[in-house]
Amino acid sequence: MVERELPWKDAINAVMQEADEPLHYEAITQAIIAAGLRTSLGATPASTVNANISNSIKHEGESSPYVRVEKGVYALRTTTGMQQNEKQAKKLEEDEAQYTLITSFGMFWRRNGVDWKASPRLLGMQNIGATTVDFCQQLGIYLLYDGREVIYVGRSTDRPLGRRLYEHTFDRLATRWDRFSWFGLLPVFESGDLGQMPDHHATSLIIPALEAVLIEAVEPRQNRKRGDDLAAVEFIQTVDPEISKRQMKATFDTLLEKF
Q: What secondary structure letter does DSSP report for 2?
């Protein structure tokens, strides 16, 4: 355990210097957390790691200590002796940039992990220890499941995600779904706040993003790749604390009845 918290870039370098192979930014993030190099993670630690490395490559060019090996995977130029010409770097950057329409997503979140009301808290975190984010106001696409079967695909545009899902707890689908997935368009800041919808998106972003969402959500057998082309980092569901409180109260009340 380190005595003091390292700046993000120093923490990234410490992990990559110990690695004997290129690492995905999510693996770098997990290693930083496991080693205790950072305790203040914010809401988007994996995105912060990726942004630090990507911005260095973009703005420093060959002076950057990092090399992008493939989408989301990086190595230290100095420790690996790896080189990358300008054409290769530009191609990899373009491949990564085309999937930036979807900013965040959650897969197979449990319906019973949400305290349902008109504005429910849809809580998730990027990594263990990161700040919890409430996605109630997110906009985008969602799917409802009965077990693993998709029974409904919807969109949240005029009404946010939390409200749309809440409506499905008492409409014709109320008894037919137990899990949901969602793909959001609003950016997520390190503070845990959601940003505003961009004024427009280029067609070159829309088509690849839609393909990646469909592959991730439907999991078609004949697709050789999955939706890992999404630039977004997945958020893992966090059960609303109000549910735990009610469960504890019910247990306590049951015990009282026995005495």
A: -
Q: How many domains does the chain have?
A: 2
Q: What is the mean pLDDT of residues 53-57?
A: 89
Both 55 and 111 in one domain: the answer is no
Q: What pLDDT score was predicted for residue 125?
A: 95
The type of residue at 48 is T
* Assigned domain for 2 exists: no
256 domain-assigned: no
Q: What residue spans of the chain are helical by DSSP H?
A: 8-18, 25-34, 45-60, 77-80, 86-97, 161-167, 203-218, 241-258
Residue 42 in contact with residue 48, Cβ under 8 Å?
Answer: yes
Q: For 103-146, what is each residue's pLDDT tens digit?
A: 899 999 999 999 999 999 999 999 888 999 999 999 999 999 99
- How far CA 88 is from CA of 61, 91, 185, in Å, comes to 12, 5, 29
For residue 47, the domain's CATH number is 1.10.10
Residue 251 banded pLDDT, cuts 50, 70, 90: confident
Neighbours of 161 (CB within 10 A): 26
Q: Tell me which DSSP letter residue 61 carries.
A: G
What is the extent of the structural domain holding 213?
104-243
Do both 158 and 195 map to the same domain?
Answer: yes
Residue 232, classified by CB atoms within 10 Å of its CB into exposed (0-12), middle (13-18) or buried (19+), is buried
Q: Is the pLDDT of residue 229 over 50?
A: yes
- Rounded Cα–Cα distance for residues 230 and 236 (Å): 16
Residue 249 lies in a domain: no
